[in-house]
């Protein structure tokens, strides 16, 4: 009897996950349309979405943002990536840059939509304190150059508590707080979850769905395989624990975002 009940519960759980995935595919465009306050028709899908993913290192894009990138590309959105370092901590920056380009090609972002910085002020180092004003300036220049209306990056915990991730969040929050962001641009931060939830794999989907968020992006088995293939492009980073991450991390299946509050454009702070 207990075995029968366990099988029945497992069946309903997987049906629930399937329903969440199907509903997310239908509602994602509507959610983004609400966030950026734009008219996006079902015929053109997400062609009016000009999205920028801001990361710190090569491999961030697939380790943390793959479900979002895959879903945005599927919507026909114009997706760009700004990576603020080449990941040169072990003097492998040139190689890691090529790994990033291959990963993004699999995820659907072509080379000409990728900017990878090699700035001495932004070293790949968990102990380095990036200059928040300089990071803000670089991001703002990129936003203005391409007229993005959706910017997605890390939250204040940076998923892995990496100082470089957190610096990007501080820089983006500074832009939002000081009213430097165009009125038609929405800033979103990737929600950091606790350790237990982080490694529940796809089983965590129902909990993420129930928790309040500004944007919810998830992928099915095909999307997961694509994200995993993109991660395997980063050969220099495939240490034993990364295989565990690819297998068990919920970030390979789902991303949830919260809006970063924005002050009015050109707000003066005295």
UniProtKB/TrEMBL annotation:
Listed Gene3D superfamilies: LmbE-like
Any one GO molecular function term: N-acetylglucosaminylphosphatidylinositol deacetylase activity
Record's GO cellular component terms: endoplasmic reticulum; membrane
EC top class named in words: hydrolase
This enzyme's EC code(s): 3.5.1.89
Gene Ontology terms: biological process: GPI anchor biosynthetic process
Source species, domain of life: Eukaryota
SUPFAM superfamilies tied to this protein: LmbE-like (SSF102588)
Record's signal peptide: none
Family (UniProt): Belongs to the PIGL family.
Protein known as: N-acetylglucosaminylphosphatidylinositol deacetylase
């Amino acid at each position: 009897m207990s075995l029968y009940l366990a099988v029945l519960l497992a069946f309903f759980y997987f049906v629930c996950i399937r329903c969440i995935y199907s509903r997310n595919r239908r509602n994602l465009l509507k959610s983004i349309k609400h966030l950026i306050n734009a008219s996006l028709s079902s015929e053109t899908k997400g062609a009016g979405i000009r999205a920028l993913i801001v990361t710190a290192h090569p491999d961030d894009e697939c380790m943390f943002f793959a479900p979002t990138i895959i879903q945005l590309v599927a919507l026909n959105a114009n997706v760009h990536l700004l990576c603020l370092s080449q990941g040169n901590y072990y003097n492998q920056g040139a190689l890691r840059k090529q790994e990033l380009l291959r990963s993004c090609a699999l995820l659907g972002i072509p080379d000409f939509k990728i900017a990878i910085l090699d700035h001495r002020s932004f070293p790949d180092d968990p102990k380095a304190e990036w200059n928040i004003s300089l990071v803000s300036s670089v991001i703002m220049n990129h936003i203005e150059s391409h007229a993005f209306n959706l910017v997605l990056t890390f939250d204040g915990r940076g998923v892995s508590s990496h100082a470089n991730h957190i610096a990007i969040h501080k820089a983006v929050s500074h832009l939002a707080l000081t009213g430097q962001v165009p009125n038609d641009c929405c800033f979103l931060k990737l929600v950091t979850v606790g350790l237990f939830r982080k490694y529940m794999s796809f089983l965590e989907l129902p909990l993420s769905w129930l928790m309040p968020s500004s944007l919810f992006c998830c992928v099915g088995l095909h999307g997961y395989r694509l994200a995993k293939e993109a991660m395997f492009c980063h050969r220099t980073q495939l240490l034993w624990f990364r295989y565990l991450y690819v297998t068990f991390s919920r970030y390979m299946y789902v991303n949830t975002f919260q809006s970063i509050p924005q002050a009015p454009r050109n707000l003066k702070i005295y």
